[in-house]
Amino acid sequence: MRAIGQTRAGIVKMFICEGALIGLIGGLLGLSVGVLLVWGINQTGGILVPAPPGMSSGYTALIKLSSEACLYAFVTAWMASTLSSFYPAWLASRIDIIKALHYT
After folding, report:
1. Does residue 75 form part of some domain?
2. DSSP 8-class letter at 6
3. pLDDT per residue of the chain (104 residues) written in tens, 0 to 9
4. Environment class of residue 88 by beta-carbon count within 10 Å: exposed (0-12), middle (13-18) or buried (19+)?
5. Fewest CB atoms within 10 Å of the CB: 29, 56, 76, 84?
6. Do 24 and 78 contact (CB within 8 A), yes or no?
């Protein structure tokens, strides 16, 4: 990218934006799959839990989702992806132009 005129800061911004976009899409997909799984488990009657020691019968556990837990999971996935793009962005901005052109 530097060979076609992109600045180091521009390369860093591009990598971080890509990391944020990947985190956004991944967080939304993960949240959607998780909500669908919870809905499916609850629709089929929940999870059968064996009887604990000292009791004669088990019970059925249903999963309860809260909006806070969903928001926390989404923000955590998004921030992890965004923050993990800083080091590769820094490395990409430091590549020597001549070496980059030589290997392509």
Report:
1. yes
2. -
3. 766 777 889 999 999 999 999 999 999 999 999 999 999 999 999 999 998 888 889 889 999 999 999 999 999 999 999 999 999 999 988 888 777 777 65
4. middle
5. 56
6. yes
